Amino acid sequence: MRIAQCLKYLTSSSARNASTISSSLQEMQNRVVEASLTLIRERARLKGECVGAAGGAKASSCLLGVPLGHNSSFLQGPAFAPPRIREAIWCGSTNSTTEAGKELADPRVLTDVGDVPIQEMRDCGIRDELLMTTISDSVKLVMNESPLRPLILGGDHSITYPVVRAVTEQLGGPVDILHFDAHPDIYHAFEGNIYSHASSFARIMEAGHARRLLQVGVRSINKEGRDQIRKFGVELFEMRKFRKDREFLENLELGVGVKGVYVSIDCDCLDPAFAPGVSHIEPGGLSFRDVMNILQNLKGDIVAGDVVEFNPQRDTVDGMTAMVAAKLVRELAAKISK
């Protein structure tokens, strides 16, 4: 009898201890998240004030790094990309003026609030659902400081889902998305992961965050991808038909009747001759000038965007892809800012 009572006590004591530990862990994780958001909030407030002090703007692009790579299906190197892109933007090998003549050193064109501390949060046991929510909340904090508009430095392509979610929730309605990529990233749950970088646009479309999704540069797609594209009504522009589609793509008008345009650029949309530093090398892609012609001729109000999937661990010794990613960021910033 006494043994049974002892076992019952020990069992209930273990349950209480486990519950206490779980509660303490949750409290700690919440504090870490709040500290992370506080840092983004205060930086965004400062950058908004800097734009005002410089004379104000209707829209000013604001860099936010999201160094997340663990949702990659092959290599996790994109987690290391944001600091390398920043280094390339300001390295001094070229001047800080964009092709349209905008000066990046002007805070009305480009500001920077740093990175969401993804790895630090993961080290505290924070899992994907809360990570995605924190990314969304960070984007909203940037958008709270008018006229800042988020320009996201990835990271793998899984980050586009929480970013687009934040943008549409903040603006109160869907956007049109212009997506450059070698892959459609629209698997329902690639390898069982609903947050996979290969599933981000399935999450976006099923939640109604986009009215139109245009995918440009695709050259690696299977039956599931085509089924999903038909299911969601995606406008697909494959590389094998690019010559025929070029004129249409270089005269796009998007965002009318919705809350604006979101531009997502996966670096592997480019032929690896232009951008070898990516995880998934797919020959036969767009040239850099193809992307620029489409982007620079685009008519529409770009409310946010991202440049993702640059993998520094696969880049050439001279940092070629870092410079390409930086150039994409520079020119997208120029297009956003006004």
Automatic annotation (TrEMBL):
Keywords carried by this UniProt record: Arginine metabolism, Hydrolase, Manganese, Metal-binding
PROSITE patterns in the record: ARGINASE_2
Cofactor detail note: Binds 2 manganese ions per subunit.
Residue numbers binding Mn(2+): H157, D181, H183, D185, D266, D268
Keyword Protease set for record: no
Reactions this protein catalyses: L-arginine + H2O = urea + L-ornithine
Keyword Glycosyltransferase: no
EC number(s) stated in the UniProt entry for this protein: 3.5.3.1
Pfam families to which the protein is assigned, alphabetical: Arginase
Co-factor requirement: Mn(2+)
Gene Ontology BP, a term: putrescine biosynthetic process from arginine, via agmatine
GO function terms (MF aspect): agmatinase activity; arginase activity; metal ion binding
CDD domains tied to this protein: Agmatinase-like_2
Pathway, per record: Nitrogen metabolism; urea cycle; L-ornithine and urea from L-arginine: step 1/1
Family in the record: Belongs to the arginase family.
Entries under PANTHER family matching the protein: ARGINASE/AGMATINASE (PTHR11358), GUANIDINO ACID HYDROLASE, MITOCHONDRIAL (PTHR11358:SF26)
Official protein name in the record: arginase
